[in-house]
Amino acid sequence: MSIRAVVWDVDDTLFDYSTADRLGMRAHLAAEGLLDGYDSVEQAIAHWRAITDRQWARFAAGEVSFDDQRRDRVRVFLGERLGDAEADAWFQRYIAHYEAVWALFPDVLPALDALAASHRHAVLSNSSLRVQDRKLRVLDVHDRFETILCAAELGVSKPEAGAFLAACAALELPPHEVAYVGDHPEIDGRGAADAGLLSVVIDRADAYADGEAPGPHRIVSLAELPSLLGADTRFGAPSTFG
């Protein structure tokens, strides 16, 4: 099997979303004076994340738009019937705190460098192009990828096979020549495997026992990826793309 391209998830794979969300929401709630209603910061953040998960599931199911799931996250969290403009303004104040702590995982740039000459690269995210395009530019990795595909524009989201196959089509490669790297065992791991891609689950927290992550490949660091893909990185040649 020859893998010619790697398609990447973004949040919690390339970008440390969980840390940024936690630190950003902590700062935002303090600035908004909203922590008094909770026993701890952790409780408030857990409440926000539970709401985020529920509203995101509605978006993934096609029940609401990307912008409306954001607004509904705010309304449910605050318990207030805010208008669209009010909800948008609250969310944008959160975004300012969140973006201030954006960062890649430390193993990302070394892995991209190691694979630059041997493999083509793309992104497939369950977010929107508006969000992820800007994020990748701010993190200074946008030009590493030939194409960036997102569920909001595709009209289909992971783990549906159509999302992964759209990425393969954009690269003009069959699924068996494409690897997908993501952090979620079901949405990324099983979804990519079922679509016929080489599926790799990045498990930095070492949370999934061998055999549980349905990749069938589980790695705990992106440093393992070049070897897994059989990349010849001896010369460290730079990418010729973009």
Question: What are its keywords?
Answer:
disordered C terminus; globular; 6-stranded parallel β-sheet; alpha/beta; 10 helices; 47% helix
Describe this structure in words.
This protein is α/β, with parallel strands linked by helices and 242 residues long. 47% of the residues lie in helices and 12% in strands. The protein has 10 helices and 6 strands. It has a 6-stranded parallel sheet with strand order 3-2-1-4-5-6, sandwiched between helices. Helix 1 (17-32) packs across helix 4, helix 2 runs antiparallel to helix 3 and helix 3 (66-78) packs across helix 4 (84-99). The longest helix has 20 residues, at 41-60. The two termini are 27 Å apart. Residues 232-242 have low confidence and may be disordered.
User: How is the biggest beta sheet arranged?
Assistant: 6 strands, parallel
Beta-strand percent range: 5-15%
Written as H for each helix and E for each strand, in order along the chain, the element string is EHHHHHEHEHHEHEEH
Instruction: Provide the residue-averaged pLDDT.
Output: 91
Count of beta strands = 6
**Helices and strands: which structural class?**
alpha/beta
Spatial strand arrangement across the major sheet: 3-2-1-4-5-6
Radius of gyration: 19 Å
Cα(first) to Cα(last) distance is 27 Å
Low-confidence stretches: 232-242
Helix content: 40-55%
Treating each run of at least 4 consecutive H or I residues as one helix, how many helices? 10
